[in-house]
Amino acid sequence: MAYSHFERLSALDDSFLELEDGVSHMHIGAVALFEAAPLRTPEGGIDIARIEGAVAAGLHRIPRYRQKLARVPLFDHPVWVDDARFNLHYHVRHTHLPAPGDERSLKRLAGRLMSQELDRGKPLWEMWVVEGLEGDRFAIVTKVHHCMIDGVGSVELTGAMMRPTPDDDLALEEPPPVWSPRPAPSGTELFLSELGHRVGAPLAAVKRMVGSEPSAVLRGARDVVRGLSEVLATGLSPASASPLNVDTGPHRRFDWLSMDLEEIRKIRKSLGGTINDVVLAIVSGALRRFLHRRGDDVGGLDFRVMMPVNVRTAATRDHLGNQVAMLTARLPLDEASARHRLERVIAETTRSKQSSQASGMQVLEELSDSTFTTLFTQFARLTTLSRPYNVIVTNVPGPPCPIYLLGAKMLSVAPLVPLFANQALGIALFSYDGRIYWGFNADWDALPDLHELVVATEHELEALANAASLAGAIAATEMAAARSA
Question: How much is the pTM?
Answer without folding.
Answer: 0.88
